[in-house]
Amino acid sequence: MPTLKLRRVAIDTNKENVAYLHRNCAHYRSEGFQALNKVEILQEDNGKHIIAVLNVVDGDNIIQPGQLGLSEQAYEQLSLAEGTAVQVAHATPPQSLRAVHRKIAGERLSFEEYLGITHDVVENRYSKIEIAAFLVACSDNGMDRDEVLNLTEAMVKTGERLNWGESLVVDKHCIGGIPGNRTTMLMVPIIAAHGMLMPKTSSRAITSPAGTADTMAVLAEVELSPHKLLDIVRQQRGCLAWGGTAKLAPVDDILIAVERPLSMDSPGQLVASILSKKVAAGTTHLLIDIPVGPTAKMHDQASAMRLRKLFEYVGDRMGLHLVVVITDGHQPIGRGIGPVLEVRDVMQVLNNSPLAPSDLREKALQLAGRVLEFDADVRGGQGYIIARDILESGRALAKMEAIIQAQGRNEDSIKPGQLQHPVVALCDGIVGSIDNLQIARIARLAGAPMVKGAGVDLHCKVNDRVEKGQALYTIYAEFNADYNFARQAAARDNGFSVIKSHQSF
């Protein structure tokens, strides 16, 4: 079989292996390759091989006819030097695609079928188009609770699993949908300062302006090797890290890369994503926060209760001691929405600053109190008092500083975006409601979470009195395009409902 010379193409294809062939390549023409075909790339001498999606190049500025280009991820996976001779052939479709077709048809899949799908996804045998088809089929046709359990177990089985050698390893997760809800970054230092083990690994944001890992990255390194992660947790009793580099349920990170642009977050996928990561991280006791509100992910108590029962069913069968709390999701928590702005809020709470947002502080203490009560030595109802004492004494701040130092402090000074635009009230009145989805959308259009300093800084909350022309919030952006997109979105719908008042203030 003819060979081509390997070339590294510096393109980030976000969790997808991509190969590049020149249209005038004799091998391309003879084999009948087409763009978006999947190809197998093989180095015969050492047996290294990968599967990649083919892109066809017409110009000579990327690759020459006798070369095969590989995207950054594909090049790193193949791990061969540039110029190495490789062979390219049509890839055999993964057998698990049959199960995907069955799911598209609305059929129920077994554990073995979900295991086959997750294994092939991790092995990069699926294109993003095929992954999207699987996700949409699961979302549109639904998964019963046993299917969600099957998918969760399959996701755990296709990655590594940590064992801390302790009977009490705690964690907390919010299903999301509430901007600024950065309670985890307060809970971890409080609980670790108490002495309980809380190795917090988080995903990047899917549809929100920031996830815990995105926000913590402003302060410290979050992409930690499994070895470093273990050392930090054993020394500090806690961490705030991204779960991707630890290879915990790695299929979840690939699925999230497809879910993000589709803004998908179906209940079955959500439960499987969260619980697979927790089980893989060695968690024994888990608190799940489900906010409920008109513009939260769960709009009403009935939907929240259904999701709660699904969490409890899967969690129980995965061996988790799981507590689900339903909280108020009618408006954002804290003031900052976006990594840098949320870090400011967190540090104000840890420093016991009078400027700290009281709602963020109170919710973090309530949730931390529930987690502390997993400790057999803490009586029911006493967790909140202990959490408050740890925060007010400065022990939580000291623990957070120690965790930041252990993970690797980010010495770069990241500030809110230089482009700032106040969004003002159009009349006198009282803030009646805040649309979580619209505020999150404006913050994302401003550049969050990719641009750390981008986002929205709230100046008013529900029930606050405002005057015409008073700033409701400020948009922060770093780039003109983001700035203009966010401003235009806010001009169409600023996300605030102000009940008009005819009284003077």
Q: Can you put this structure into words, describing what you see?
A:
- By secondary structure, the chain is an alpha/beta fold.
- 40% of the residues lie in helices and 20% in strands.
- The chain folds into four domains: 87 residues, Barwin-like endoglucanases (Beta Barrel), CATH 2.40.40; 46 residues, no CATH class; 226 residues, Nucleoside phosphorylase/phosphoribosyltransferase catalytic domain (Pyrimidine Nucleoside Phosphorylase, Chain A, domain 2, 3-Layer(aba) Sandwich); 82 residues, Aldehyde Oxidoreductase, domain 3 (Alpha-Beta Complex).
- It has a six-stranded mixed β-barrel with strand order 1-5-2-4-3-6.
- The mean pLDDT is 93.
Instruction: State the distance separating the first and last CA atoms.
Output: 82 Å
Biggest sheet layout: 6 strands, mixed, barrel
Poorly predicted ranges? none
Number of helix segments? Answer: 18
- The beta-strand count equals 18
CATH topology name of the largest domain: Pyrimidine Nucleoside Phosphorylase, Chain A, domain 2
Structural class: alpha/beta
Strand order of the largest sheet: 1-5-2-4-3-6
Strand content: 15-25%
CATH superfamily of the largest domain: Nucleoside phosphorylase/phosphoribosyltransferase catalytic domain
| Quaternary status | single chain
Query: What is the rounded Rg?
Result: 24 Å
* Principal-axis shape: globular
